[in-house]
Amino acid sequence: MRSLALQAIGHSTLLEEPDRSRITAACYDVDEDSIYFAVETVNADADLEVTIWKKSALGSKERRSEPELVTTLTTSCLSPDASVGEIISLRFIMESRTLVLITRSGDITSIPIDNLPIEADVVGSVDLGFLAAAWSPDDSLLVLITGDGKLMLMTSTFDVLSEAPLHTSDFGEDAPINVGWGSKQTQFHGSLGKAAAQAPAAPVSSTGSSPDDDSIPRISWRGDGAFFAVSALSPRAEQGLRRRVFRVYDRQAALQSTSEPVAGLEHPLAWRPSGNLIASTQRFGFEGGGSGREGRHDLVFFERNGLRHGEFGIREAHLKPSGDSSSSLHRWGYKVKELSWSSDSNVLAIWIEAEEADLVQLWSTGNYHWYLKQEIHPSKGSKRFTSIAWHPEKALHLTLTTTSKLEQRIFAWDTYASAAAPPFDSGSVAVIDGTSVLLTPFRMQNVPPPMASCHLSLVNNDLPALMGQRTPVHVAFSAEKDVLAALWSFGRVQLWDLRTRLAVGRGKIMDPVLLWEGDVRRGSDRSEARQIAVWTEDDRVHIAMLSTEYESAEGDVVSIADVGHGKLEGQRDIHMPDRNGWLISSPDKVVVWQSAEGQIFAVDGQDIVHPTSGFPDLCFNSCTVTVSKSGTDSRVYIGLADSGKLYVAESGAHCRTLCSNVNSFVVTAEFVIFTTTSHEARFVPCEGILDPEETANWETRRVERGSRIVTAVPSAMTLVLQMPRGNLETISPRPLVMKVIEEDVEGGRYRKAFLAARKHRIDLSTLVNRDETAFIGNIGLFVEQVEDVDYMNLFLASLGTSSLDTQVVAKLCDLIRAELEARDLKTYISSILTSYVVKTPPEHEPALQLLLRLRDSEPDLVEDAVKYIIFLVDTDKLLDTALGMYDFSIFLMIAQHAQKDPREYLPFLRELRSYEKFYQRFKIDDHLKRYEKALTNLSLAGSEKFDEAMEYVEMHRLHELALALWKDTDRYASVLETYGDWLFERREFRQAALAFLEADKKQKALVAYEKALEWQELFDLAVSSELPDNEIMDMGWRISEGLTSKKRFAEAATVLLDYVKDVRQAVIALVEGNLFSEARRIIALRKFPELLTEIVHPAILESRSQVGEDIGEMKEQLRKQLQRIRELRLRKIEEPDAFYGVEDTTLHNVDVMTDVSMAPTAFTRYTVAPSTASRTTKRSSRSKRKMERKVGSGKKGTVDEEEYLLNSLTKLVNRFTATQAEAGRLVPHLFQFGPDHRREGLSLQENIVNFETELKEAIEEIWKKSLDGTDADAPAEDGWAARMERLEKDRMINPIDKVPRPNISSTDWRVTMLETGKV
């Protein structure tokens, strides 16, 4: 669906007297992006003078306006015909920076460009001259055909590799093998019948060549340089005709294949660079020519094995001259002179020599059809081309020479698509095919090319102004409606009203009407029109035509005119600051022009050109879009460069890159849509296109490989893509669909939004999400528009499965149900049932109750409704709901329609019918596992069911409900006792005791309090219950043991003193808890001094010994861990690779690893697991948790060992703080006892003080961050892998940043009197 547009032109007149001299050859210097061309002049001595000139190529950074003389040489002239060029090959060899010139006279001349002065050197000559020459694409081989019919293969240094006769009877190395089948006699010939199969083949002697054949051999290389083809006329024979044959050779000049005999095959030959086709031409309708009507002329294709592979007609009717053909130079009035492929194999140039003037046609193919895209005529003052050459690297750069001029043209692919905004967006796309424009409105039809909805013929044979220049150079659509403007290079414009039908119905999709035709160009006729833009306003059409002067240094000219009522009005010209720019389509009817360097200029209302923005490079495919920014509209320019970068530039602001791998894009009112070389389509909202942070919000969709955008039709929610092979695919991307749905919802067009969401499988809750409040307020309008019952059911079902809040869904269902019931309950019964069951949780019971209400009055309706609700809800759930309603009739109705086996449910129903009311309901609720409701009904079944109820309570743990049910009854105490027993079994002794007290079960309460160690409540209850003293004393012994086991020593001592009356045991309990002060107080109060020496003194020494051992353990741990941390940090500095486990960078390019265990790597050091390169394991959840415990466990040699040590030291500080506090309570007592105790106290105090000092120093050393940059002077690594390793090390977090520094408390715990006594 793409057409070729003329991006830039450059004409240079080199010879003022073309009769004496003529340009005959040209070639490219890719390195310097320049062109060398040769001028031939025959002097008075009949020798040939060749002048070599150099000129900058069109589009190069260096612009040399005037050609530069390189050198001049003289050689012999073989041909007396001045119209035939003597030079048959001019080639620039990039490796040696040498021009090689080959002439028909047989000279091979080498011209070193970089050697000054530049001098030509004849490196070889052949007496009989050369007929043809061709270099391989890599400039390493040269093929020559000599005048005596020999084929020579030479190297770039002109060493002969092969020399053999051109004509041979051998087929070649790829000769086919006849196995007896596949011949003409065994093939099916359709309607021609058996006679066609048995008809003898035409003899080879009757196969001749075309009268237009110039008898000169042709050579053409394949793009990869592996093969070349040679086309030549066969030698004259005594009988028969001469015929054209081409042969295929490999790089060693070994013959591979020979073409089959083709009648009327002509001299042009061009091998497609991609290698699949060899192109030539064939004539029909004459003796020795092809079998067909006279005048038929085809461009034919062959495979490498010489067999035919398709053809297409050259459309000779458009090339025949007007008037009497008998006076024509050629039999048919024209002939094909040469064929040439572009370097990317997409465009085929056909050089035609016609009666009036030469013509070059550019053809491209898609979907097995060949399109005529452009026609190139010699500029004014010239009639014939002398050479044609494509740029070897820039695919669409073409250079042509006439006898006196050098013409350069740059083409670009463009899609001519309508940019009309909704609701008038027809999605029309125009494709140029010669004199016809193929039109398809994709809003209404998707017609696969080469077909189209409308074939618009632009050329009328009665118009002599278009004779000879029939193919338009550019077409454009109006942005307001489908008005098409067609432009020819000489300034002729046609305006067509396409009258596209946008509604579904009968009639023509398009009915074009010509609005106006005429010339827009004014002033010089030495300019060429390249582009047209068109706008419509009411009944007027505004035209902007871009043209470029041939040889003038002035800038482009934009001709603006208005067409109204069939007349051209208000024509004026605006001069641009540079040449070869391009108009940017603008929806706001402003002329915007982009220079060849990417600068953007706008034309204001006074026709003043002023710069507004710019791209870094020329963006041929570009457009403008208006976006809202800070409450004001801003014009934004979007352009796609040849490099694949998509730029966005704001007026007066900088330009930024949206994406760097784009191959096509299109702009709608809401989105910028582009496809990438990674086979994705991305949708950028226009409102956020200026915000770099919005990239993450772009929606993306995968597309087929190589897809390109043709057009987007927002009204139809479609995006049209074209595949590489030419077929079309129409998709409905979610962003376009969602935008239309949102607009319809906001406009209250709920039915249209609903149908769009349904068609494109969009969640129907989208209709609510856009504006929940507005939707709730328009429930009536929604129901009115979406009146179909099935649609309403679908919408309600979608609500139930949506992500909406359950309360919102319930509210919407209730509102819709109320609206439906008010409109027609009977019609919408299924929708009403749906509104019940889609809620969360579903309301099955109200739905069944509705059926019960209608059962008697509308039995048929209820029957259908039951079938529908069975379809919606699981049958078993419905049966359970019906059974839970205690109505067997609805249960039976559902069971019957659900086709349940009666043997499954009838026995159960009979059993239920045998019970009285509440017990029946108890059985039903128990069956449905509604245990609380079952217990309620069982409590109403009578007192005789109480024991069964208690068993049911214990079975299902319904004690709280039982207490509520039997409160204020004579059974309440029994329920309380049962509840207390259940709590006691669950070891909730305190709660059980309270339940027993409430039930007046004091003995059980005492046991529960004792189990709970609630000794205050226990002895209060025991004393108030007047238990014997011995039982209270036994109870005290048991309680004290329990308290002691729970380390509640003070409480145990209180119980022993108050209720057991045992002072000794109380003191022992206090000493066990290190409560020495309280123990001494009890001894003094109860006057038992002997217990001080007997119990307290030994115990306090034992406690001192334990504290000393703890300090020793902590000191040993501190020293070991401090030493290990020092070792790790030293190793981290000296051997960082070994410490972090950095992998060997030399192994990064190794593709295959063995299956043996490898040395630890950066990965294995973190996982503490061996690694095998080819082994994959799948861990279970348990093994993963185990692995997580290993990581950070502090195993020696792991990366996290230092972090583990720091955490361990933090715990050590906390332990020391607790030990220090314990020593603070112990030391005062040691001071007050005897000398031995005082010495122990002093020793303990010194040990703790010394360890505290050592611990503080260690903490200060460990948590002190180094201020030195250990890697500051390290040399910069070279290579990608080394840099990545460096970044990985930099990301390593220092363990001291992970573990906070612990603080040692500075409380005053020491006894200074001990230190004074020491002094």
From TrEMBL:
Q: Does the keyword Protein biosynthesis apply?
A: yes
What GO CC annotations are associated with the protein?
A: cytosol; elongator holoenzyme complex; nucleus
Q: Name one GO molecular function term.
A: tRNA binding
Major localisation: cytoplasm
| Cellular localization per UniProt | Cytoplasm; Nucleus
Segments forming domain ELP1 three-helical bundle: 1096-1262
Q: Which UniProt keywords apply?
A: Cytoplasm, Elongation factor, Nucleus, Protein biosynthesis, tRNA processing
Query: What single Pfam family name could you report for this chain, choosing any that match?
Result: A-sol_ELP1
| Pathway participation | tRNA modification; 5-methoxycarbonylmethyl-2-thiouridine-tRNA biosynthesis
Q: Where is the ELP1 TPR domain?
A: 919-1081
Spell out the InterPro entries in the cross-references. A-sol_ELP1 (IPR056167), Beta-prop_ELP1_1st (IPR056164), Beta-prop_ELP1_2nd (IPR056165), Elp1 (IPR006849), HB_ELP1 (IPR056169), Quino_amine_DH_bsu (IPR011044), TPR_ELP1 (IPR056166)
Ranges for domain ELP1 N-terminal second beta-propeller: 431-710
The chain positions of domain ELP1 first N-terminal beta-propeller read: 1-393
- Annotated region described as Disordered, given as residue ranges: 193-216, 1170-1197
Keyword tRNA processing found: yes
Q: Which GO terms describe its biological process?
A: tRNA wobble base 5-methoxycarbonylmethyl-2-thiouridinylation
All copies of domain ELP1 alpha-solenoid, residue ranges: 734-803, 805-912
Q: Where is the composition biased (Basic residues)?
A: 1176-1188
Q: What does this protein do?
A: Component of the elongator complex which is required for multiple tRNA modifications, including mcm5U (5-methoxycarbonylmethyl uridine), mcm5s2U (5-methoxycarbonylmethyl-2-thiouridine), and ncm5U (5-carbamoylmethyl uridine). The elongator complex catalyzes formation of carboxymethyluridine in the wobble base at position 34 in tRNAs.
- Which PANTHER family does the entry link to? ELONGATOR COMPLEX PROTEIN 1 (PTHR12747)
Record-stated family: Belongs to the ELP1/IKA1 family.
Q: Please state what the protein is called.
A: Elongator complex protein 1
Could you tell me which species this protein originates from?
Heliocybe sulcata
